[in-house]
Design brief:
heterodimer, A: 222 residues, mainly alpha, 10 helices, 81% helix, B: 200 residues, alpha/beta, Rossmann fold, 5-stranded parallel sheet, 3-stranded antiparallel sheet
Amino acid sequence: MTALAALFVRDLRLAIRVGGGALIGVLFFLIVVTLVPFAIGPDLALLAQVGPAILWLGALLASLLTLDRLLAIDHEDGSLDLILTAPIALEATVAVKAIAHWLTTGLPLVVATPLLGLLLNLEPQATGAVALTLLVGTPALTFLGLVGAAVTVALRRGGLLVAVLVLPLTVPVLIFGVAASNAAIVGPLRFGTPFTILGGVALMSIVVGTFATAAALRHAAD
Amino acid sequence: MRLSGSDLACFRGGRQVFAGLSFTVEAGEALVVLGPNGAGKSSLLRLVAGLTAHSAGTLSLAGGNDELTIAEQAHYLGHLDALKPSLSVTENLAFWSRFLGGSEDCAAALEAVGLAGIARLPAAYLSAGQRRRLSVARLIAIKRPLWLLDEPTTALDATAQAQLAGLMRDHLAGGGLILAAAHGSIGLDAPKELRLGGPR
C-alpha cells in the first residue's frame, strides 16, 4: 500500500510541477469552447441547444490531449522497466496512475464546466447536468485513453495514433453523456435512464481499461 | 543462493541474439558478461530481469524467496536512469525506494554515493555521472540480493568508479550476487567471466 501511495504522490507532483501539463487540458477545453460561439454566431437558442454536445466534445479532446505522454515518458526514461520489477500487480499500478491522472486533468474539466456553460447560454440547471455527466464520464475517458497510450508507448510520435485508436471506443460514453445532459434540459426522457447507462459504461471502461493497459505494458517492455 | 541459467536462447526483433547459453552465479560471486556490441549482453540482463522473454531454456534462483519472481529480487541498473527531471534528488530516490519495497529514509544511500550535498537539487540539473550515481544509490536504499548491472561504470569518474567497486564488494561480502555486462574491468578483482560471441 505504501508503494502505491508513493506512486500516487509522485504522479501528482509530476503533473503539477513545471512541464507536467496538468492545466494544458483545461486550457485547451477553455479555448475550444470559447471558439464555438464565434463560429456559430450570436444565436442564443442554437447555442443552448448544442451546448452540452460542445462541452462533451471539448472535454473528450482535452482529456485525450494530455494522455499520450503519460506512459511514453515512463517508457523513455526507463521507469517502466523498474515498475515491472516491483512486487506490485501491474494492474494496481496502472489504476493508481490513472486515478492520479484523472485528478489532475479530468477533474479540472468538470470544475471548469459551470464557467464555460455561461459562454454557451446554458441555464444553471443544464450546466449542472452537464457537469454531473462529465464527472461520471471523464474517468471512463481516462481509462480508455490509457489503453491507447499503452499500446503506442514505444512509438515516438504516438499522440495522434492514440486519438485515432481511442476515439471510436469513446462513442458510447459520448452518446450517453450527451443524451443524459439533453434529457435533463429538454426531456422527454428522464435524466436517470441515460445517466445510469453512462455510469455502467464508465465502470466497465475502468475495469477493462485497467487490465488492457497492464497487458499492453507487459508487451511493451520487450 | 544461486542464480543459474541453462540452455537459454533469446530472440529479439525476429533475430536470434544468443542460444544455448548456460551460466551459474553463486552467493558472493560476480559474473561479468563480456562480448562485442550486439552480442546480447544487455539482452541477457533484461532476460534475467524478466523484461524480455526467453524462447528456450530455464532460469532459476535457488535459495531465494519462492514467493517472489527473480525480477522482484533483482535490481536492474540499465542504460536509462529512470529519473524525473522535475523531482529533486531525494524525491527521486525516495520514490523508487518506497515503490520497490524499501524505506523512505534515503540519506545513507545518498551519502554512500556522494550526493548528500545536492540532495535537494532537481534531477534536471545533474550531470550524466551524477545521474548514474543516483541510480546506484537505488541499489543501496533497497536491499535486493541480485544486482543486474548494465555497464555500470559508464559516465562515472575514477572516484565514483572506486566507490561503486567498494559498494559491489560489500554487496558480495554480504552474500549478494552480481551479474554485470561490461567492456572492460568493473573494478572487482578477478570476477568470473562469461564471453558471448559476435552478432549473427
